[in-house]
Amino acid sequence: xxxxxxxxxxxxxxxxxxxxxxxxxxxxxxxxxxxxxxxxxxxxxxxxxxxxxxxxxxxxxxxxxxxxxxxxxxxxxxxxxxxxxxxxxxxxxxxxxxxxxxxxxxxxxxxxxxxxxxxxxxxxxxxxxxxxxxxxxxxxxxxxxxxxxxxxxxxxxxxxxxxxxxxxxxxxxxxxxxxxxxxxxxxxxxxxxxxxxxxxxxxxxxxxxxxxxxxxxxxxxxxxxxxxxxxxxxxxxxxxxxxxxxxxxxxxxxxxxxxxxxxxxxxxxxxxxxxxxxxxxxxxxxxxxxxxxxxxxxxxxxxxxxxxxxxxxxxxxxxxxxxxxxxxxxxxxxxxxxxxxxxxxxxxxxxxxxx
Amino acid sequence: xxxxxxxxxxxxxxxxxxxxxxxxxxxxxxxxxxxxxxxxxxxxxxxxxxxxxxxxxxxxxxxxxxxxxxxxxxxxxxxxxxxxxxxxxxxxxxxxxxxxxxxxxxxxxxxxxxxxxxxxxxxxxxxxxxxxxxxxxxxxxxxxxxxxxxxxxxxxxxxxxxxxxxxxxxxxxxxxxxxxxxxxxxxxxxxxxxxxxxxxxxxxxxxxxxxxxxxxxxxxxxxxxxxxxxxxxxxxxxxxxxxxxxxxxxxxxxxxxxxxxxxxxxxxxxxxxxxxxxxxxxxxxxxxxxxxxxxxxxxx
Lengths: 355, 300
What we know:
heterodimer; A: mainly alpha; ABC transporter involved in vitamin B12 uptake, BtuC; two-stranded antiparallel sheet; 14 helices; globular; B: 13 helices
């Protein structure tokens, strides 16, 4: 009754192939963007921006990268934190060693560096699949973090091991306040999300999905398997690299290899599992879920039990809830939160009728 | 002569630590062989078994009683996992099952932390981690007694399990189930009982591995990451081969230690963290099913 599409006619191919063919969806998206760009920086507190919204956007970006590789192209990867590290360190080194390097250019170049590394470690995917590929990407994860740690050149021979990231500057304006950082990250993430959505909807995405479903059949059909797989690795690593650079520059403020552990790789994988494998919306929902869960748990804990609770107990309960939720999601809704949203929209189309 | 002695020492030390990896990998192979599930939670189960054993001993029970109780706990854990995590996901994609076991890892870690708390614990098996005296005196090679005991235990376990799978009816049933659940069901193999049995055995193997690792490096949370080291062992040996696990463990252990000692210094050390994985990738490119694994046949 409320979500009707009756009366909306599409009279050209361009109209038919929009991302949001329904007027309600378009209006909702415009409203969402208006809220994100105009309302939130005006009313949100610094804590909200710095601790919740900026990391959510950054992790959504990385989760999109992971989704492209694991969700659309079906190549299970456990190395996303490693590619994030490559992006972060590349951005730092580019800004450090090239005089007058604009931040956006450094960001793009660091994404390309991460893409190159991604292609290198994605080469085994041409021979191995599934679980074995996951182990190969684990190798990438461990090797990258070891290399960035061992070779002091990456850290500019800094003895402390923790490097402060340079300030982000575009055309002379320095993005220092939380609002400025938030808007920069939002703009970058929104642009890249649009790009990812269009890639996924187009021939590229269809090629990835064909490879995911049955790669031998795809090859028989004429899809260039090597190019498709390596492209997936490259684009995914690009997203992870840009996400990693933003993670270091806009969120942490420091650049260190120990921030990009295997634990982070697993968290990113969980983001896409819970959010919805193979969807762009799922990246956002999953990232939000995984980020909010620890905060929610500690709030609930404090409300229920009070302050006499050991930190290790809280973290233990967090682990248990986390793991159980993953298992429950996989059993009940393997396609994640994005599917739940889709089902809701379907129901809304028909409400109050059952069918 | 000193250089060669040192090489032998590193080599044998590596071989023995490789045997320890094999023990952990054995649990993986058992479950994969019988149910086609890659149980990522094996590392957490190793840790949980070790910490439960030590915790129960600390509560006052003697060694053998604690051992029996822990065996019971591990069997229950295995059966609960099979019932609540794997049976609802029975015909899903292998990646889904893998991710479910990753979730299980977190749950087991959380429960271990909740019940037994954090902190390192000593596990005393009565065998000291000191070099064998007569070997050291006669040849100048220092090899730990504990490592040799662990190797003997692992060898015994592997022999028993290999015999179980190859010669007994139960082993045949296990292999049939791993091959094709539906077909096994249709000829009357009691699937649920078989799975419960497999998970129980894997739990006991995890306990043995946990006790040996715990005796060697103390029962601490880092034990969970030993499972990550077992992955290259599985890849090189093949996911479905029990003897392969030992051979691969030896290869991984020896090459890791030798690389660390001889190649490590020229690149700054710390190679141990990624060398086994790179080795595994190289093996994968040449022989995707591992040295002893079954050939992977994909039907399109």
